[in-house]
Design brief:
The chain has 55 residues and is mostly helical. The chain contains three helices and no strands.
């Protein structure tokens, strides 16, 4: 019983759970805005390519 109470008061696992939740939220945002992010990255690389050709 003492070990179980000690386990319940231990807060080390809370940091791991928070980190996992943050990662899940970030993955969800990427999946939701995948099309917009892809277009943005492609536009950025197109601009870089065009500007590099001028130099």
């Amino acid at each position: 019983m003492f070990r179980f109470n000690k386990f319940l008061r231990d807060e080390k696992a809370a940091g791991v759970v928070e980190l996992i939740l943050i990662i899940v939220v970030l993955i969800g945002i990427v999946l939701i805005f995948k099309k917009q992010l892809t277009e943005l990255v492609n536009d950025i690389f197109d601009t870089i390519t065009d500007e590099a050709g001028k130099v």
